[in-house]
Amino acid sequence: MGFHILVLDIPSNGHVLPKVGLVDELVRRGHRVSYVVADRLADRVHRFGAEVIGYRSADPLASLAEDDPAAATSAFFRENLDILRAAREHFGDDRPDAVAYDEAAFQAGRILSRLWDVPPILLSVSVVSNAHYSYFDHIERLVPGHRLQDPVEEITAALAGFGLADQVEDFLWTRRQVGEFTIVFVPPRFQPAYETFDPDQVVFVGPSVEKRDFLGAWDPGRAARADGTRPPVVLVSLGSVRNNDPGFFRTVVEAFVGQPWHVVASVGDSLPTAEFDQLTGLAPNVEIHRWVSNIGVLEHARAFVTHGGNGSLLEALHTATPVLVVPPAPDFLPYCDTVRELGVGTVVAPAELTGERVLAEVAALVGDEKVQHRLRDLQEHTRAAGGAPRAADAVEAYLGRR
């Protein structure tokens, strides 16, 4: 007899997509998966057999562009309350066997698991924190004074309505640590202080990057020249959130015009149409997409120019592709440290980005045999972590012990 697992998630491709492999695996094994997700992303999980519980999102991701240190934590807490409300209204007195939730939906997940008295499962698509390592402390070490602020009064008042006012510390972003059974979609060597996490509580399964072709499959034949030869491919992307940067795309893409490279740029939905059209018409060796499967391109690419988001970096490790990272905000800087420590790429500050620098850094990475060797080693390590099948094994084992 299968389990009924409820998943709570935020309205972000970068958070939903890493979990679709797990959803598919659980459904194929005979489990029932219900998934609370914003209406606009419902198709992402419905296609893999999940029962979708949609809700109207207030778009908390927009708050990431604000300077107010409490803007994002406030917006995401209110989004968590909307997620929580959608789940409670849908299920009423019915109860799943477990509540699994994204790290950015941890407030809704922890409230719901305690109200319903069902096992919690944290599903983290990025690195996690404990008493030995803190992602937020890491950012502040790199950018002194840059620290999020929790809306403590708002959180306390809301928790009081659920009889949880004495547990405020468990619901603060800036104090967040793993306290429940956790599946982390990163490989062990990508996680700082990996050895300090209890393997019975925290399972590092690596990325689950399959099942992405619905984003837009890429045909490597598009890189072929008229004479049939194929130049090396470079993928350019700023991820799914902070991608409205015409200057970045113009600088990077124009650098490769007339060069012996084929450029594939995935620019997202935020780039204005006029900018999109200008980039599209630049040169025959340039192709511009709103969305394309990164993995589909990286399987054929020699380099990846990226913002350095967790998901993009793991895709690069999965395909052994060197990265040139241009971090758009402080929250990407801890990952830049990891790139340097692993020796798989180069970091360039946005203010130092020029076309000449892009070409020089990409050429250096592609030509460095030590980088290539490290990437092949990390690719093996990343794939050996287990991905979606191991995540499903861990869920079944955990619930089987309850």
UniProtKB/TrEMBL annotation:
Residues 271-381 form the Erythromycin biosynthesis protein CIII-like C-terminal domain. GO terms for biological process: antibiotic biosynthetic process. It comes from the Bacteria. Gene3D superfamilies: Glycogen Phosphorylase B (3.40.50.2000). Keywords: Transferase. InterPro entries: EryCIII-like_C, Glycosyltransferase_28, UDP_glucos_trans, UDPGT_MGT-like. SUPFAM superfamilies: UDP-Glycosyltransferase/glycogen phosphorylase. GO terms for molecular function: hexosyltransferase activity; UDP-glycosyltransferase activity. Belongs to the UDP-glycosyltransferase family. This is Erythromycin biosynthesis protein CIII-like C-terminal domain-containing protein. It comes from Parafrankia colletiae. The lineage of its organism: Bacteria, Bacillati, Actinomycetota, Actinomycetes, Frankiales.
